[in-house]
Amino acid sequence: MSTGNLDFEQFRVFLEKACGILLGENKQYLVSSRLNKLMEQQGIKSLSELVQRIQSQPRSGLREMVVDAMTTNETLWFRDTYPFEVLKNKVLPEQIKANPGQRLRIWSAACSSGQEPYSISMAIDEFERSNIGQLKMGAQIVATDLSGSMLANCKTGEYDSLAIARGLSQERLQRYFDPKGPGRWAVKAPIRSRVEFRSFNLLDSYASLGKFDIVFCRNVLIYFSAQVKKDILMRIHSTLKPGGYLFLGASEALNGLPDHYQMVQCSPGIIYQAK
Fold it and tell me: CA 53, CA 154: separation in Å to the nearest integer?
């Protein structure tokens, strides 16, 4: 596969327009590793040919396949640990108090292979076990991602032992999963039923999502330009109820929106409260 500079530049422009992802100038290797197989199957020799084919055949499904390949990534269970502890010890009790008699709504934006929303669902179960009767109306988790094939896999709730090994304790595996055959496990129905998966592009309108008490948008914004990142954070704010919380990734920070968010130190970790 050819990845000449002009080819790569053309592809970078296409990808940013399609889904907002800004590829670094030195990311040719990433494009090669993610698209080699697809381009071979389609008989496409260069990135410029790929972009031309997408533009000339908009109904072929090729655009979706390319975006899929470029945005798909594996992730961990209970990634960074502290957000899920902060959720159980601080955020859930506060939100239950602030919204008595209402079902809590949580958004897992860019849920990837499903570990984050299922981890949130397990954390809610753990909270309920130690605070019986507090979460009377329950919680709904809306998990969104750009990748259609990824979402289809998420909905099954099935994982192989390689994926299970990434951050899941033996205790949680036994409590929340059923064995599905050699080296495969499925998330138990009560944990799965709390999560609703939807296909969603963070650059599209947020109107259909409704309002949330808590938003997890972790390790996603690093892929966007500063302007797009700011725009997404403003739009997330419009989906958060006043006093609702935003969780970002451990290495991400929210700068420059003091009228919208207030930083809350949680030791460890930082979360953001919507003003």
Answer: 30
Quickly tell me which residue has 């968010």 as its tokens: 261
pTM: 0.81
User: Do residues 134 and 96 lie in contact, with contact meaning Cβ atoms separated by under 8 Å?
Assistant: yes
Kindly state the tokens that stand for 220. 């996603």
For residue 77, pLDDT beyond 90 = yes
Encode pLDDT of 44-59 as tens digits.
999 989 999 988 988 8
Average pLDDT, the chain: 91
Q: d(Cα 197, Cα 63) in Å, to the nearest integer?
A: 21
The band of 72, judged by pLDDT with boundaries at 50, 70 and 90, is low
| Bridge-based pairing state of the strands 158-160 and 184-187 | antiparallel
115-119, 149-153, 185-189, 192-196: least confidently modelled range: 149-153
- Nearest Cα residue to 168 out of 151, 152, 185: 185
3-state secondary structure of 57: coil
Q: What are the residues facing 240 on neighbouring strands?
A: 212
Alpha helix segments (H runs only) across the chain: 5-19, 28-42, 47-56, 62-71, 82-86, 92-98, 115-130, 148-156, 161-164, 170-176, 189-192, 226-239
Dihedral over Cα of 122, 137, 243, 217: its sign: positive
Distances (CA, A) of 222 to 207, 227, 268: 24, 12, 21
